[in-house]
Design brief:
The protein is α+β, with helices and mostly antiparallel strands and about 350 residues long. It folds into three domains: about 1-70; about 130-230, Immunoglobulin-like; about 245-340, Cytochrome Bc1 Complex, Chain D, domain 2 (Orthogonal Bundle). The protein has helices at about 5-25, 35-70, 85-115, 230-245, 250-260, 285-290, 295-305, 330-340; strands at about 130-140, 140-145, 155, 155-160, 165-170, 175-180, 185-190, 195-200, 205-210, 225-230, 265-270, 275. Strands 3-2-1-5-8 form a five-stranded mixed β-sheet, covered by helices on one side. Strands 4-10-9-6-7 form a five-stranded mixed β-sheet. The protein has a two-stranded antiparallel sheet with strand order 11-12. The protein is elongated.
């Protein structure tokens, strides 16, 4: 190949590669990372992207150059020269991709190992190193139980800043998938199985928790929030919630309602809940009369055996049966709270 042809090939490659690089840089493909793991995942993404841009530029340059340089002339109907292969070229285009795939595999393996690793605590007895949270998915809500803090459960994921968090993820009904875009990772929630995910949040803020596996009619609405806060603020919140849950039944009903994700599916004005996935809890008194049951008995039965009374317009199996395992004090508090807030 003559020097001028090489220059043309290089020029075309620079234009193609530059265009691809601009597209990669100017379009915000990824959210701003909010965890150490997300930063590593972003590195892998850009590492692979740079390799892909280089390959694209080379291939596009050769194709464009060949189309322009060797196109058939008007009236030319001869066959092309017989070419039986080029051993050196075949070795190159086998060895180079193999080396690139090996490099990507090594980098990915290192990042995956680092993301799953929980370093030793800098101080002995740190209750937040690691913080273990049991993430339970169900149609169509999330609940988060903080195993180091008794029965503390919330419908919003609370996380301490710069502390490793081990999420143990499962499902009560069908397959779901836990994803916080800013944390850079997602993990399936499978019934009867626990899958682990390690996250170390490094930026204060509120981020969406999304289900990314089709799980039923309410899939698009199966969302929650992850709130990252300083470690001391998290501890204060956890201790405050424990006091509420351990207080008199009437005073902790709203805490039980919110902690168990009832506001993710129902409308209940006293709690500021306005979801439409499940029945409107403002109308509990009318539904109890229709069922011919005392109000509190109707509410209790509907919680522990949600298929006993099914409001018109809804189907059996929509509400999980797992709430039958609520501690008696919390169940009593929830029943009293709902009965007191129902419309008359």
């Amino acid at each position: 190949m003559r020097r001028g042809s090489v220059a043309q090939l290089v020029a075309i490659g620079i234009v193609c590669g530059g265009g691809a690089a601009l597209v990669a840089i100017l379009i915000p493909w990824l959210p701003d990372p909010a965890s150490r793991q997300a930063g590593r995942i972003d590195f892998v993404f850009w590492f692979v992207t740079v390799i892909c841009i280089a390959i694209f530029a080379l291939v596009a340059a050769v194709i464009i150059y060949s189309v322009l340089k060797f196109r058939a002339q008007p009236g030319e109907d001869m066959d092309g020269p017989p070419i039986h292969g080029n051993t050196g070229l075949e070795i190159v285009w086998t060895a180079v991709p193999a080396a690139l795939v090996t490099a990507i595999s090594i980098v990915s393996a290192i990042v995956l190992a680092k993301n799953d690793h929980i370093p030793k605590a800098s101080a002995a007895g740190d209750p937040l190193h690691p913080l273990v949270v049991e993430v339970t998915a169900q149609q169509f809500a999330w609940s988060f139980k903080y195993t180091g803090f008794g029965d503390l459960t919330s419908a919003t994921l609370k996380l301490p800043l710069n502390k490793p968090v081990k999420l143990r993820i499962t499902s009560l009904d069908v397959n779901h998938s836990f994803w916080v875009p800013e944390f850079g990772q997602k993990q399936d929630a499978v019934p009867g199985s626990w899958n682990n995910l390690v996250i170390t949040p490094d930026k204060n803020g509120t981020y969406p928790v999304i289900c990314t596996e089709l799980c039923g009619l309410g899939h698009a609405l199966m969302r929650s929030r992850a709130e990252v806060m300083p470690a001391q603020k998290f501890l204060s919140w956890a201790k405050g919630q424990q006091k509420k849950l351990g207080g008199p039944a009437g005073s902790s009903g709203k805490a039980v309602f919110t902690a168990n994700g009832c506001d993710s599916c129902h409308t209940f004005t006293p709690a500021g809940a306005n979801k439409k996935i499940g029945p409107d809890l403002d109308n509990l008194r009318q539904e109890a009369q229709r069922a011919g049951q005392p109000l509190e008995q109707f509410i209790r039965t509907s919680i522990v055996d949600p298929n006993a009374y099914v409001e018109p317009g809804f189907t059996k199996g929509l509400m999980p049966t797992s709430f039958s395992s609520l501690p008696k004090a919390q169940l009593d508090a929830l029943v009293s709270y709902l009965a007191g807030g129902a419309k008359k």
